[in-house]
Design brief:
This protein has about 110 residues and is an alpha+beta fold. The protein has a domain at about 30-95. It contains five helices and four strands. The protein has helices spanning about 5-10, 20-25, 45, 60-70, 85-95; strands spanning about 30-35, 35-40, 50-55, 80. The strands form two sheets. The protein has a two-stranded antiparallel sheet with strand order 1-2. The protein has a two-stranded parallel sheet with strand order 3-4. A hairpin with a 3-residue loop joins strand 1 and strand 2. Helix 1 (about 5-10) runs antiparallel to helix 2 (about 20-25).
């Protein structure tokens, strides 16, 4: 039984209130990693949008740890502001394990 099933079973059995169940579900998938990094690994299940990791100011080793942690249970992850040092380590450690797609070019859009 996974954690979500356990929450729903507790609700069904009257062990927790609807409010408690909602709180638990909202915290479901929130993981804490070193250096105060929080990962919302349950985002895709709840919102249909994968976790997005801002990589630029994180050490490459921490980005690798985050990617590895999220990808254990998910099949999609977005990395933003990835530097060459991040990409180099990711390719070195994860090549052949995950499909890393790099789209380095983007257009700036201005809303007026």
């Amino acid at each position: 039984m996974n954690k979500l099933e356990a929450i729903l079973l507790q609700l069904k059995d009257g062990k927790i209130t609807i409010e408690d169940a909602l709180t638990e579900i909202n915290l479901f998938g929130l993981d804490f990693i070193e250096d105060g990094v929080k990962m919302d690994s349950g985002r895709y299940m709840r919102k249909g949008i994968p976790e997005i990791v801002f990589a630029e100011k994180k050490p490459p080793e921490l980005v690798l740890k985050i990617v590895s942690n999220i990808m254990k249970n998910k099949n999609v992850l977005l990395l933003s502001r990835v530097l060459e040092k991040h990409l180099s380590l990711l390719n070195q450690e994860l090549d052949g394990v995950y499909n890393i797609i790099v789209k380095p070019d983007f257009e700036f859009y201005r809303v007026t």
